[in-house]
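User: Run a structure prediction on this.
Assistant: Running it now.
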Amino acid sequence: DPNIAAVVCDLQMPGVDGLDVHAAIQEHRPELQDRTLWATGGATTPTGQAFLKRPDVRSIVKPYSGKTLRDAVADRLISSG
């Protein structure tokens, strides 16, 4: 959908993980990379932990409030230009 303004995605999900979603965004919608926010309850794998430490990756830690989510999404939209 070309009207997607931002993506909020959990890092760990059954069947597919955030790293798979990130790879799909890079391949199919790279313009959304800077407008993606990753939600996590704490990355449990070394790969997930390394992903969250990347300077281009923004995340919020669960549980979070509605205000925290709104502020984080707004920040991603503002910083992506």
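The mean pLDDT is 92.
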